[in-house]
Specification:
The protein is of the alpha/beta class. It has 2 domains: 171 residues, D-Maltodextrin-Binding Protein, domain 2, CATH 3.40.190.10; 112 residues, Glycine betaine-binding periplasmic protein, domain 2 (D-Maltodextrin-Binding Protein, domain 2), CATH 3.40.190.100. The strands form 3 sheets. Strands 3, 4, 7, 8 and 9 form a 5-stranded antiparallel beta sheet that branches. The chain has a two-stranded parallel sheet with strand order 1-2. The protein has a two-stranded parallel ribbon with strand order 5-6. β1, α2 and β2 form a beta-alpha-beta unit. The relative contact order is 0.19. The N terminus is likely disordered. This is Glycine betaine/proline transport system substrate-binding protein. Keywords: Signal.
Length: 309
């Protein structure tokens, strides 16, 4: 009887699948979402791949400050929207104290600053310092996005920089801001708003980014690098999932066109992510380099099979 039991155990060891790449508690991967279309695309790309690898990925809509707090409190695992340098000062303490960790850079060459329609720039508004002289045409308003994401503008007004101390920052959402921009441009009205790339606004509208906002957003029109960050200890506890996030890098063309599918073509983030993955097999191979399924099988083959590629 003892011999039979030993043989059965040894046989089980021989035929069992490969060792799990991540522990069972890593199966659920919680990602913070801000309601921005770029993060919807990148988050959902990660979600589609993770699910195909056997994980259970989810997204939760949070404000920017809440997203950082949620990482610190272990209520979220990953955030793909650490825009630098615009977030550097306000959220510096999270990095200094080690309550979040950097997994990798997911985008380079981004920009993030105020923009106006090209016809407004053609009338001489090319810098932050040109705005105050045309307060009546702009209605003394700057259109921003979600509360928590407009602090550089709020600080600018509070400090009366560029003579904008009596202006109003309209906080709403990306979608509401873009509706205002679209309606204003249709009527050739003057509007100044928070613009950025990647975003299909750069494909769909003739816009001009304003110079002179180095204090608010940094040089080179708020030239930015976007990083993926995680809660403290995530990479040590879940190295396979962390490896995927470290590999997951995009580019401006990829994101502009993927976001256009969502905003301009009415596709869901899931549909857009799947379509962009299919169009970019080379990227998929790089993303899955060194990444396995949750149960330790080759990752690329599993994802291609799950997605019908």
């Amino acid at each position: 009887m003892r011999t039979a039991v030993v043989f059965a155990l040894l046989s089980g060891l021989v035929v069992s699948p490969a060792m799990a790449a991540d522990a069972a508690q890593c199966q659920k991967v919680r990602m913070a979402d801000l309601g921005w279309t770029d993060i919807a695309l990148t988050n959902t790309t990660a979600e589609v791949i993770l699910d195909a690898l056997g994980y259970d990925a989810s997204q939760t809509l949070l404000g920017l400050g809440v997203a950082y707090s949620a990482l610190k409190e272990n209520d979220m695992d990953v955030f793909l929207g650490n825009w630098r340098p615009v977030q550097d000062e306000e959220y510096k303490s999270y990095f200094d104290e080690g309550s979040v960790e950097v997994l990798g850079v997911n985008l380079e060459g981004a920009k993030y600053t105020l923009a106006v329609p090209q016809y407004v720039a053609d009338q001489g508004v090319k810098s932050f310092d040109d705005l105050a002289a045309h307060a009546d045409k702009f209605g003394g308003k700057i259109y921003g996005i979600e509360a928590g994401s407009n602090k550089p503008l709020l600080d600018m007004v509070a400090a009366n920089r560029h003579g904008l101390g009596d202006w109003q920052i309209i906080e709403s959402s990306e979608a509401a801001m873009l509706t205002q921009v679209s309606n204003s441009m249709a009527d050739k009205d003057w509007v100044v708003f928070l613009g950025w790339e990647p975003h299909p606004m750069n494909l769909d509208y003739k816009i001009s980014y304003l110079s002179g906002g180095d204090v608010e957003f940094g040089p080179n029109f708020g030239g930015a690098t976007v990083r993926t960050i995680a809660r403290k200890g995530f990479s040590a506890e879940c190295p396979n999932a962390a490896k995927l996030f470290a590999n997951l890098a995009f580019d401006l063309t990829y994101e502009n066109h993927g976001m256009r599918m969502i905003l301009g073509e009415g596709k869901s983030a899931d549909e857009a992510a799947r379509e962009m993955i299919k169009r970019n097999p080379d990227k998929l191979a790089k993303w899955l380099d060194g990444v396995s399924t949750l149960d330790g099988q080759p990752g690329l083959a599993a994802v291609k099979s799950a997605l019908g590629l």
